Amino acid sequence: MGETTPPGVEPAPPVAAPMGPAPAPSPTPSTPPATTPAAPVAPAPTGPVITTPAAPKPKAVDCRRVKCVALTFDDGPGPYTTRLLAMLRKAKVHATFFSVGEMVAARPKVEKQIAKDGHEIGNHSWSHPDLPKLTSAAISSQLDRTARQIAKATGTKPTLVRPPYGAYSPRVRKLIGGDHDAVVLWSVDPLDWKYRNSNSVYSRVTSQTKPGSIVLMHDIHGTTVAAVPRIIANLRARHYHFVTVSELYGGHLKSGHVYTDRQAAYQPKATTPAKSKTPSKVTTPTHDGAVDEGSAVFNDPGDEPTDQRGRGDAMGNTGSGGKVGRPEGDGDGVGS
Ligand SMILES: [Zn+2]
What we know:
Blueprint: E1 68-74, H1 81-91, E2 96-99, H2 101-106, H3 108-116, E3 120-123, H4 136-154, E4 160-161, H5 170-178, E5 182-184, H6 198-208, E6 213-218, H7 222-237, E7 241-242, H8 245-248, E8 258-259, E9 290-291
Helix pairs in contact: 1-7, 3-4, 4-5, 6-7
Residues 1-3, 74-75, 124, 128, 164, 314 line the site of zinc ion (ZN).
């Protein structure tokens, strides 16, 4: 299981055009001193405690201004996930886990621990099929069943979906959007399912990561998990902030949109152009790493062109091979 190729069906996100000043965060509501009595403290729950994944804090890092990276782990929870969680806890790093429903069913306690540790959890289908090849009813079943299983284990329904192999079609995307979920792909792929070597995973991730990257890894591989502490140390030394996918986008992911990274939005303070020099020309609006509605290049309203891409999976089954696409066309995230 696992993604073998970068999402080749993705049109290249717009190159970071000179952006105007980033939209100012909404002003702090100038609410007068509270005159209403504070809400009564909720009585202690008597049932099972619902663990809420660490919601992005209001004062979370602004990934348009500082270097952020979202580490993501797919296909688990697996035998190495608990070890990975200990590593992330020790390093004080939050990541995003795209869980497979049947794996959650097998290890509900591990899934619960992922949420308890403050990581974000996304939906990676029930049994890791190529979603565009399924009927709409089957796609919905894959996603809904997994969402319920994750909610059962953690108390929270996921709002992010990573389709297996990064394969989606307009139909898949519409179904995901209809569930009010966002599609999350990636921009850095160390091919850890293929190169079961910690040094390889380490060097590929650290060399390809840029501010705003979403890194694809698989916690079902011991070699990947073993590389994580060094990856974190390297990126941290380069002043990266580790964020969940939702945090990377400031908590503003839109239903049905496709996200591969947020590199286009990164504009460190030091290089922010002076306001007075803003050209009068219309600048290309940044898409902030998201693919706009309607901009995906598909010809077939039904099943779609992902078949063109190489196939394989994280369990080591290589696919038929094929065209390699690049989400952002800058040489990173090599896939095959
Ligand atoms: Zn996968």
